[in-house]
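Reading a protein record of the kind used here takes little practice once its layout is understood. The fold follows as a row of integers, each naming the local backbone shape at the matching residue. With these conventions in mind, the following record can be read line by line:

_____
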Amino acid sequence: MATVKTSPAPSRGTLPSRGGSRILRPLLAIGALLLVAGASVATTWMLTSRMYETHAMQAAGAEAAPSPQNIRFVAPPAGPAQVPAPIFMPLEPFTVTLRDSDELDRILHVGLTLRLGDEQSRQRIEKYLPEVRSRLLMVLSAQSARSIQTAEGKQALARALAQAVARPFAPIPDGQTVSDVLFTAFVVQ
């Protein structure tokens, strides 16, 4: 059988001494400390400079461009948003005479309901109701039977009626908010 000879491990006293390890350990600790302190200073400087830029842009009136740093989470409202109740104002029906190019008189009977944007508009319209009815009659009587019998014609008529009601009344400088004119009756004979 073959035997393998191993050399005995040198004793501790025979190893060369490491006098440099006593100096190396404190130097490595100081280096690590300087590295951590430098990273801390750099991070603090970066965060404060970004905050300063954001405040400077807001003070100048400019909005910051959306970037990942400027995006903030906004929690959704707890419940559904409260939608204000619509303000509808029904008007008495109108009956007007329409003239067509073939000289036949046609009759238009129309019922209207106004959808208003605010309570102040409703109060103004009630106060100036005779003027509102007059404006609506003028717009209705200027129509031709052919034009108002199509869907596009009815939509154009609704826009014209809304514009007529929205115009300001004589002493008041601003007009009313009319969001829509709804037809509740529409007969052409």
